[in-house]
Design a protein that fits this description.
single chain, mainly alpha, 151 residues
Length: 151
């Protein structure tokens, strides 16, 4: 794989992870707490209006492409690069297996009791902290890989 292509991929990966981390913190601190006071059918669908364009598609594709690039990266950057990919891969699995399905279920939960919706949203928010940690650690590892020689 040509070096310029690998360099472009890690650039895009680092930038996208930074955006995802910042937007995730904003959503967790500002947007989601307001949802507890309103019915789920009135929640803004940030998944379709924002996240699909920032992480669902781009970060997932960048993670896969960067896994290939990391495999072809020689030197000390390779270990950090692989760590970043592994962390973000775990985050992507959690996102697709728990976070997206749970939010879709909650947003269509008109018939669920309010207590059940509140409990599920609270659990989603609590577990979401772990997802933020994975993205932060993946971002930091990618930044470290980016800062090292990638001959």
């Amino acid at each position: 794989m040509p070096r310029i292509f690998r360099d472009a991929l890690i650039w895009l990966f680092v930038i996208n992870l930074g955006i995802a981390f910042g937007a995730g913190l904003y959503e967790a601190r500002v947007v989601v707490p307001g949802w507890a006071a309103i019915r789920p059918d009135l929640w803004p669908n940030t998944g379709l209006t924002f996240w699909v364009y920032v992480t669902t598609v781009p970060l997932t594709l960048l993670t896969i492409a960067n896994a290939v690039a990391a495999w072809h990266t020689p030197g000390p950057a390779r270990r950090w690069y692989a760590a970043a990919i592994a962390l973000v891969f775990v985050e992507r699995i959690a996102t697709f297996s728990y976070f997206i399905p749970t939010m879709v279920r909650l947003m269509g939960a008109d018939s669920l009791p309010e207590a059940e919706i509140t409990a599920a949203l609270s659990q989603w928010q609590l577990i979401n902290h772990g997802r933020h940690v994975l993205v932060l650690l993946g971002w930091l590892a990618a930044l470290k890989a980016f800062s090292l020689p990638r001959v």
